[in-house]
Write a structure and sequence with these properties.
By secondary structure, the chain is mainly alpha-helical. The chain is 80% helix and 5% strand. The longest helix has 55 residues.
Length: 205
């Protein structure tokens, strides 16, 4: 019985000491936690103040609309279309000459001699090769001209935009188009018309 009383007393003593240790530990951590909380509040206040005093000015333009009404873009598009049409006319003329040559050959073949047939067949094959060669050359030439015109357009337009953006006081001017990466933008930030007028003014000056 006496042994059991000792065990109970030791248990109570242990629990008491544990409680005192926990209270002391909590009191020691309390000032540290209060300092950390105050620091977090201070940092949050500084951050909020920074963003409120240095808010960014951002706008966007509809690039499809710009391409439609920007004079420089219309000029590039018209130039490329004229070059494509010119290339197509050249190829079309050669195809027409080829088709006529084939029809004449088929019509006259029954009364031709072997030597004449061979000569005309060689002429047809030569014209075929010429058409394929000219077609490839025109395609390569057109591709290079498109790349050159597009690069010039992009560089010059970017040069204009650097000036226009600074003049209007924007930090960022984004490009929007249907199906592009920007899924939503408040129309209040749409400055497409202003940008088109400014670009046309820069281009014509």
């Amino acid at each position: 019985m006496e042994k059991k009383i000792h065990i109970v007393l030791y248990s109570l003593l242990f629990l008491g000491l544990s409680g005192i240790y926990y209270i002391n530990l909590k009191e020691q951590k309390k000032p540290h936690l209060e300092k950390e909380k105050a620091l977090q509040q201070s940092n949050s206040s500084i951050t909020d103040e920074k963003f409120s005093s240095e808010s960014l000015k951002i706008a966007y333009v509809n690039s499809d609309t710009v391409s439609k009404y920007y004079d420089y873009a219309k000029k590039v598009q018209s130039s490329l279309l004229n070059k494509r049409n010119s290339a197509e006319r050249q190829i079309k003329g050669k195809y027409q000459a080829y088709e006529k040559l084939v029809k004449d050959f088929e019509k006259e073949a029954p009364i031709m001699g072997d030597r004449e047939k061979l000569e005309k067949a060689q002429n047809i094959r030569a014209l075929e090769q010429e058409i394929l060669s000219v077609e490839q050359q025109l395609s390569d030439q057109l591709t290079q001209e498109e790349i050159s015109l597009t690069q010039s357009y992009i560089l010059k337009t970017n040069e204009y935009m650097q000036v226009i953006g600074a003049e209007l006081g924007y930090d960022y001017v984004l490009s929007y188009r249907l199906g592009g990466p920007m899924l939503y933008a408040d129309p209040i930030h749409d400055i497409t018309d202003t940008i088109i007028k400014s670009l046309n003014s820069k281009y014509s000056s």
